[in-house]
Amino acid sequence: MGRGILFGVLLVGGLLIGLVNAASGVSTQSCWTPWNHNSDVRQWGQNEWVWAGIHGQVLVCDGKFQRILTDTVYGTSTAKGVTVIGRGIRKGSDISYAYVTYTRDGKIITAFADIPHYFG
Q1: Band (119; pLDDT cuts 50, 70, 90)
Q2: Per-residue DSSP letter, 115
Q3: What is the pLDDT of residues 23-46, one digit of tens each?
Q4: In angstroms, rounded to a whole number, what is the distance separating the alpha carbons of residues 54 and 98?
Q5: Hey, how many other C-beta atoms are within 10 angstroms of the C-beta on 52?
Q6: Segments of 23-106 assigned E as strands
Q7: Which pLDDT band holds residue 6 (cuts at 50, 70, 90)?
Q8: What whole-number distance in Å separates Cα of residue 101 and Cα of residue 90?
Q9: Which long-range contacts does 43-50 make (Cβ < 8 Å, 24+ apart)?
């Protein structure tokens, strides 16, 4: 008799926990925070190159991108041997990116790297 009551309490408790997780939308067990990277590197010689790169963790739940963990984001936007017009890094929870806009051979070009790169 005692085992039957214990089994019943455990069964009902498990069902209640399952309902609470289902009602909250996404359970914490289905989420993970992989590192996401992206870069745009162009090189024409040892002294002529452009590099835009971004790196950070993203929150993915049930296989779908949720947000970028902005406190983990870092990037670079640098160049050598070309004329840089502008460069920068944006850290946002929806998209983070690094860019370098430069001129080479009379053309204005932008190197651009963003995350989420695989989950967006």
Answers
A1: low
A2: E
A3: 555 455 699 999 999 999 999 999
A4: 6
A5: 27
A6: 31-32, 35-45, 48-61, 64-80, 83-90, 96-104
A7: very low
A8: 14
A9: 44/81, 44/104, 45/81, 47/80, 47/81, 48/80, 48/81, 48/82, 49/79, 49/80, 49/81, 50/78, 50/79, 50/82, 50/100, 50/102, 50/111
